[in-house]
Amino acid sequence: MMVTSFLKKRNWSARSIIEDIARSGWSNVGVDSSLKEFFMADLCSEYDSINLYNLLYSRRQEFSPYFVQYLDFWYADEKNHADGFFELSRLVFGMSELSLLQALQPRTADFSGMHDILSDEFRLLLKFAYDEYISVKTYKKDTFYEGLGHPGFRYWIKNLIADEAVHFGNAIKLLRRDHSGRMHECEAVLNMISNFEGESYKNTFLFDHDGPHFSLSGEEVGQVIVQDILQILHKGSV
Predict the structure, then answer these.
(1) What is the pTM of this model?
(2) Which of 17, 72, 105, 234 has the most CB atoms in a 10 Å sphere around its CB?
(3) pLDDT per residue over 148-185, tens digit each?
(4) Is residue 136 in some structural domain?
């Protein structure tokens, strides 16, 4: 029987945090409507996890039980994050969830060209590690939400960052546990992954680095991230 404690899973409600902010009487007194695009980019990035999850769900029989659990934990967290952005858009701009869904759902994901990095569990884990590590770094650098004037926003972002860090840590654990014999391939695969940097976002959840929400420069992604991950992979526990 699987020991579920091997992979970490945090449990919290993004909607509840934003609802608490709303009940406190906070109102939008300084966020210009022109920043709707900024909010929408963050919502799209989290919401599009459904596209990657659905793509991989159809391949569940290929994967180990732990990796299937990884996917389920990851998707539950990303859906929770998206729920928070739905609530934020409602609170800050008065946008209804229905109107947001009507804008989001017609979009389609284009995974063409990504076959090699999505081809097996080992490469997928490296892709998740790369993506989640970058998410932690960009959310830590982004102080926009903390400047909205209520401590609840900082609490919300801290929870979101913690989830992304758990996703990264879980991916590293599985790589070490189940794919130790392929560690010599990690650098080449990570380099292949990093070569996608600079391409336009295709609603895949992956490489969502060209929007106004992304706060890292070109010098802070790519090889810098590859080398960080390689060093972490060859250290002790995460």
Answers:
(1) 0.91
(2) 17
(3) 888 999 999 999 999 999 999 999 999 999 999 999 99
(4) yes
Span 67-91, pLDDT tens digits:
999 999 999 999 999 999 999 888 8
Residues near 62 by beta carbon (within 8 Å), at least 6 away in sequence: 120, 121
Tally of domains within the chain: 1
The Cβ of residue 219 has, within 10 Å, a number of other Cβ atoms equal to 8
Best CA proximity match to 127, nearest among 139, 136, 118, 135: 118
205 within domain boundaries: yes
Instruction: Answer for the pair 149, 131: CB distance below 8 angstroms, yes or no.
Output: no
Whose CA is closest to 205, among 96, 116, 104, 122?
104
Is residue 104 in a domain? yes
Scanning the structure block, which residue is given the tokens 């947001």? 100
In which domain, by residue range, is 127 found?
Answer: 32-234
Beta-carbon count within 10 A of 179 CB: 18
- What amino acid occupies position 25? G
